[in-house]
Amino acid sequence: MLLRFNVFTKISLLVLLLLIPVLSLYTYSNRESVRVIENEIQSGTTNRLSSFAAQVESNIYQLSLYGVSIGQDSSIQEYQRPDFREQPYERVKLSVAILEKMNLYNAASKWHSTITLFFPRTGDALSTDYYNTITYREDAFTRPFLKSWEYTGDSFVWYATEPTTAMSNPRSARLITKISFPINHVTAMLDENKVNNSGDPFLFNPEQGSIRNHSANAAKIDLLTEKLKSSKLGERGGFRTKLDNTEYYVSYIRSDSLKWYYVDYVPMQQILSPITNSRNLFYTSIAVLLVMSIAVIFVIYRSVQVPLLKLVRGTKRLSSGDFSVRLSHSGHNEFSLLLGRFNIMAQRIQELIENVYEEKLRRREATLKHLQSQINPHFLYNCLFYIKNMARMKNEKAVVAMALNLGEYFRYITRSENDGATIREELSMVTNYLEIQSLRLERMRFTIEVPDELMNKTISRLTLQPIVENAIVHGLEPQAENGEIRIRGYAEDGVYRLVVEDSGIGMTDEETQKLQLSLTKPLDDNMGCGTWNVHQRLIYLFGEGAGLSYSRSDLGGIKTTITWSDKTIE
């Protein structure tokens, strides 16, 4: 905890605490400014588009209103009388008067339009289009008329009937009025709107494409048209999108009369560039300040924190028992002197510890020799009593076998000063012992299953034999039926186990726990020294985790497990 809040950490935290509020406040202020400007951009674009749409709709409404009201004119009503066909001169005179009225309307209207009147009853047609001969054809009016304007590629067309109920069946109408105006009127208004404002307005229809002003950016409008086709558009609204890595705000309004959308778009970055430049300049200043702060912190870290951390780590290693630790130091400052004194102290402590450790090793070796020496007479006594009993029973074969086994045993423990033995050597001795016991107890059988990878592992001499002897004496001999001894070996992740199981009389759980507890107590007169010595020697040689453990066997008796780690002994 002290290391976390030293001077270096406090300085670093102070720098961060100074920068974080400044960055937070400026970022919040910048975002609010951008949000306000974006709202103004969106509101301004929508308002300009609404004004443009209102102008277009006003002109279209004026044309539509004339198409509806023209059928109420008295001269037109008179012209379509069937008996009027009998008076050619009057018909021509009246048609000229009707055309003059329609031309006067065109002159008064903002948009020049072409007005054509069809009279289904008489089969006549009158039109302000003097350059084309227009006649009435019944097959031209077979489908119902739409209530909106139709786009024909170069103009918008709208039909009205008298009566109005004949829109669904034009053949039943007394008069059909066709009004059309060229798209030049629309493009002219788009040009005017672009000159007066900063947008680039156009008309859009999902099926028929777009109508643009003459100076429109065709590439951007094509990209935007694709986005509009894939979007679900309402009556009016707006959205933000990216075109060529530039963000735009797009506003749209749907025309009820044309069924097209008025669309305008403005670049957000272009308007926000002053704020963006100011923000970038501020962040650059903060970055320079941060780099300078890091440089100062780095100098403090190299001069103070690094030597201090070395000293702390060295102290921790020294306290954990690593007395060989030495700290490297350079320079001629106060920390260099301190690290040099630390190395002298560590060297002196190591020399003292090594002396104490050597003395401890000598005592440990003497203890091991004493523990192992206790096992030899114990086994010898058992063998001599067995030979005596077999001699009384005139069992010469058992006497000879035991004598040979006893000779092999003393050859095994006296042939070398090495206290260690391989598992192969231990199993050879135990096999000889079990064969002799099989002669004595004809009802006993044994199996040994130890993997080859365990055979050359080293363990202290006479580790396995006392365990097998206890299994026979205390497990098999007290029961009348046949007995079995099973020895198996296991190796896993550097931990090795030898398991000795018997089918003897067994023990209760309480007795097993009591037997396990006795291995950790000092040796007394009421305790057998064989297994206790084995357990103590394993702990001395291989450390904590090694030793004997008892449990109940599936064979019915006791299972004794010998465990040790992946070490070798000399």
Properties at a glance:
570 residues, alpha+beta, Heat Shock Protein 90, 5-stranded antiparallel β-sheet, 13 helices, 17 strands, 53% helix, 18% strand, elongated, kinase, Sensor histidine kinase YesM, kinase activity, Sig_transdc_His_kin_internal, HATPase_dom
Reported by name, the CATH topology of the domain at 357-565 is Heat Shock Protein 90
Strand order of the largest sheet: 2-1-5-4-3
Would you report the number of β strands? 17
In the CATH hierarchy, what is the architecture of the domain at 357-565 at level 2? Answer: 2-Layer Sandwich
Proportion of residues in β-strands: 15-25%
Number of helices: 13
Biggest sheet architecture: 5 strands, antiparallel
What's the overall average pLDDT, rounded?
Answer: 80
Beginning-to-end CA distance, first to last residue: 45 Å
Please bin the fraction of helical residues.
40-55%
User: What class would the helix/strand composition place it in?
Assistant: alpha+beta
CATH superfamily of the domain at 357-565: Histidine kinase-like ATPase, C-terminal domain
Flag low-confidence runs. none
H-E string: HHHEEEEEHEEHEEEHHHEHEHEHEEHHEE
Q: Give the CA-based shape.
A: elongated
Question: Rounded to an integer, what's the Rg over CA atoms?
Answer: 56 Å
CATH class of the domain at 357-565: Alpha Beta
At a glance:
InterPro entries: Bact_2-comp_sensor_kinase (IPR050640), HAMP_dom (IPR003660), HATPase_C_sf (IPR036890), HATPase_dom (IPR003594), Sig_transdc_His_kin_internal (IPR010559). The protein has 570 residues and is an alpha+beta fold.
